[in-house]
Structure formats: structure tokens, C-alpha cells
Amino acid sequence: MVVDDQVMVRAGLAAIVSAQDDMAVVGEAGDGASALALAATAAPDVVLMDIRMPGMDGLTTTARLTAAQRPPRVLVLTTFHQDAYVFQALRAGASGFLLKDAEPGELVAAIRVVAAGEAMLSPVVTRRLIDAFATGALTAAPGADPRLDALTPRERDVLVHLARGRSNAEIAATLGIATGTVKAHVYALLPKLGVRDRVQATIVAYDLGLVRPR
Fold it and tell me: SS3 for 49?
């Protein structure tokens, strides 16, 4: 589903998606309220979400969509100059970000990534996220939390390395365990934290002070 208040932008995005043999646009919406109503009936797997829209903006819409019983994956279309929006959307449940001037191939690849249940977060956004914590633009709230208490010691170790941007293979090498074991730990810790992907787990790790910028 494509959500953007600009008709031409919606048409362009829809055309790119519709050109793929294994993709289809199930609906288009020009504002948040319309998007919520449409998603309830169209049941999209992925939503391409603009942030700035009249009425209900993309942040609120994303939060409501991802709070649904069967939530879609939300891919936010934004610019790196709007860091505050990016961070808020992450907390609202977005699965990834893409520049509006990205190439069609990049858009299609990003859709495939989030549709597969992964997070689409570029190294540039990750770096800016960490910098924001380091400069105080985002604040961490260290302390006891039942979500962390639910993790095993090994799951905590994996979460720390995951939040520092390391791949499963890198985590496995650091901890001296198999890559498949790392995957199993990630799969187990996500529901314990109440999140759906690695991006959300990273946000929780920083918010709770488990990981701090270095």
C-alpha cells in the first residue's frame, strides 16, 4: 500500500511496484486516516509511508498500523535531514527507511527486505542514531526493566553486539558460537523485548542503557 499526500509521488511508487511480477499495489491513500481505513480491508504486507502529510501524519499512522493485531511492515520514505522524524518513526514501529529520490531498484530491494521480516536501516541512519544518543539528542533511560530481566545472559550478550551494528557472523565470531546459534538467540530475544526486528531491538538496548555510544 502506498501512502503519500502527493498524487504524482503515489503514482510513481505504485508504477514501480506494479512492474514487479511478484508484487501488487492493493491500495493508495493520501493521508493517515484514509490509510488506516484502507489497511483494515486491503491487509497490505508492506506500507510505503510518507511522514509529512496533512491531518494524521506518518508517525501517528505508523504507530497505529504497527499496533494492529496483524500489522504490516512499514517502510518510511524520508530524508536524512529529518533525523527527529526518523528516530520517532523507529520507535513507532517502522521497519526501514528510504530516501524519496532512491533508484527504483533500491525501492524494490527495500520492499523485499522488509516483506521478508528483516529491517531496512542503512549504515548512515545507524550512525546518525548512535550520534544522537551520544550528543543527547536522544536520551537513554538506564535501570532495571522486566524486558531485560527476561533475557538469558547469552541473549543479553547477543543483544549488545546486535545493537552495535554487528552481523550474525560477526557476533558468532566474537562470542565463539555458531552463526545458527546467534540466529536462534535473536529469534528468542525479540519477543521477550516486545519487538519485531533488529532495529527495534537496537532502540530498546539504547533506551534502557544496555548499550552506550563509544
Answer: strand
